[in-house]
Specification:
Two copies of one chain form a homodimer.
Chain A: H1 15-21, E1 30-31, H2 44-63, H3 72-86, E2 93-98, H4 101-112, E3 118-122, H5 127-134, E4 139-143, E5 145-146, E6 149-150, H6 152-161, E7 165-170, H7 184-196, E8 200-204, E9 229-234, E10 246-251, H8 252-265, H9 271-283, H10 286-311, E11 317-319, E12 326-330, H11 337-346, E13 349-350, E14 352-353, E15 367-371, H12 377-397
Helix pairs in contact in A: 2-9, 3-9, 4-5, 4-8, 6-7, 10-12
Chain lengths: ~400, ~400
Amino acid sequence: MNYTFADRMQGMESSAIRELLKVAQDPEVIAFSAGNPAPESFPIHEMAEISASIFQEQGAKALQYGISEGYPELRRLSEERLKNRYGIGRDFDQLIIVSGGQQGMELSTKILTNEGDTVICENPSFIGSMNAFRSYGLKLRGVEMDEEGILPEALEAIAASDPKVRFLYTIPTFQNPSGRTMTLERRKAVLEIAKKYDFLIVEDNPYGDLRYEGEDVAPIKSLDEEGRVIYVGSYSKVLAPGIRMGFVSAHKDLIAKMVIAKQVSDVHTNQFFMILAAEYLKRYNLDDHVQEVRKLYKHKLDLMAGAIREHFPAEVIFHKPQGGLFLWCSLPEGYDALELCRRSGEAKVSIVPGRVFEIDAKLVSGTFRMNFSTPSEEAIQRGVKILGGVIRKYLDECRPL
Amino acid sequence: MNYTFADRMQGMESSAIRELLKVAQDPEVIAFSAGNPAPESFPIHEMAEISASIFQEQGAKALQYGISEGYPELRRLSEERLKNRYGIGRDFDQLIIVSGGQQGMELSTKILTNEGDTVICENPSFIGSMNAFRSYGLKLRGVEMDEEGILPEALEAIAASDPKVRFLYTIPTFQNPSGRTMTLERRKAVLEIAKKYDFLIVEDNPYGDLRYEGEDVAPIKSLDEEGRVIYVGSYSKVLAPGIRMGFVSAHKDLIAKMVIAKQVSDVHTNQFFMILAAEYLKRYNLDDHVQEVRKLYKHKLDLMAGAIREHFPAEVIFHKPQGGLFLWCSLPEGYDALELCRRSGEAKVSIVPGRVFEIDAKLVSGTFRMNFSTPSEEAIQRGVKILGGVIRKYLDECRPL
């Protein structure tokens, strides 16, 4: 049969790039292309203990239908931590548990936008979120950044020229893919522009806890006095991603609509793991665990950054981030990271070409993303060395485009 | 702040009814309004054992990101059972694991429909699915049924008059809320009409395993030789609902699109429980467990049907279904089940007025739905007796509208 698909499904695939990334599935390949947390960071032992006690003490409840808002105790504990850790949560705010941060973006889009509306994204931005926006027929407009985050004048230019802007999507802290953190000044400026042009902000903060040096910068949501910011958080990077557990904190009117949208999407998040996560937060200090995770990742980041300095040609620019999971590199002007990605795949090292994260993925770009949380220490050292050789060869053999 | 919500969010709430159903949250209320599986049917002990062994043997894998298609072993075992149990699965078919059957409806809608398209639903139908369709701006058209299921001439009349029909949504076996099962002849007729007018069929079969008497009727999907039927299955009623685990079997071109849509929705279903469900299917014979569940529910159904015969006035019509979770009753012509529902709530027994399940919920209707899987035996007997008294009083006091 031939099927006619929804218009919204167009442009959600970038098959050339998908094919390219398949190389990472080869177990012989050193994967710098992933974004997975390190498996050694999962509190497996603690979770196993809690799991056993849930089955013993409240198995039937944990396996039964729950409510779309999420398990009340997990909501309460998540709000408590948001308040203590980030100063988030005013009287008008509520919190819904979602099946991973990704669902927070999906639900925000679903309740707020009509087809043809505009969402502003940092350029480059996270492909999963961009595809969620595309899947609702939105127009994506990329806003330029520098090392301090979104350029306020660039944001204002878009907002002033496009009355259909519904929200700005931003990952202000350790942005994926660029690793950048927006300064407090810029955050304030961005919030002011949102007020002036009356659009909302969806603040995605999956990496906020993964800071290895420097000082925390206040989330935009903590500055929000009127309910303009939807804050999406995740337990994927501090507990484990396979359990698909995140949350959204926003004005109660927004959360009420999200609850309705979630009800028709998956009814509610896995009840057993909502209880498990709540129990974890009660029995353990998540921040102690986060300290351990930070140590692990700081070590891997230092290792990768050191190896890059040793093995990459000096023409390759990279900024070591203060946290997160990714290193963002740039080839000299005129070289194409897609070609580098092909070549490195042949040498059994996978990276992600930056154009995957560009609003317009057709443009040639010399940027590429490297992940340091997933590979082992040995793989980091060996892989960066191989990659350095591939880059040198590419720069030697080819003139810039 | 005042928010402007997406057009699609209109008409997804029926707040009067929501308020009415809140009575069921009162622990003193006997809830015949739910649709929850009986907690005593969950294989808690077996799941606890499997859970412990997963944490011990493959904890890191079970807590890590997985693929959007679902855990391969669970896909394979689900396909195997579909084939053996229902004769479903041709060469062109594939299977995706979803976070409960509800997500199967959501993804089907997302990949197939544009705003303003039409979906045909049995009238009455399952409110969760209808709201999923509404949430994509679809027009719902209800097709009439009798005790043998959808009336083919009614279906053809709609299809012939509306070129925007994208699919028919049907629960052919132990339909929610009516409890009806479509005959094989009708299933064949429905499939022929779908071919003639070139629309797809989304076949939702959460209750297919819950047959307490009579013979199985072949799913429409098993008759589908060309990939016209999307089959949505669920582990909610045979394992447990809180784990949010279901699957969709459909032509591989459809599944490929669903994988993309799922990626932006929740990335993948809870990895730990996908592995747990696969292990359950490997270690145990699900059909043995289903036999136990059937025994439990048959007993509760018999009990409720007997109590209704004893306590309800003879004017109340009900058909005892051969399976599923629900009994469907009708007050005499001119009486309103919404009013009955209010009165029974005051008497601490909750039922669901039929109009909740009608395409046009504003129409007065004397139908109401009763669930027998959730309440205890004692609650069934006591609740039906109370309800019988409330009905008698309502019929005595009030003339028909």
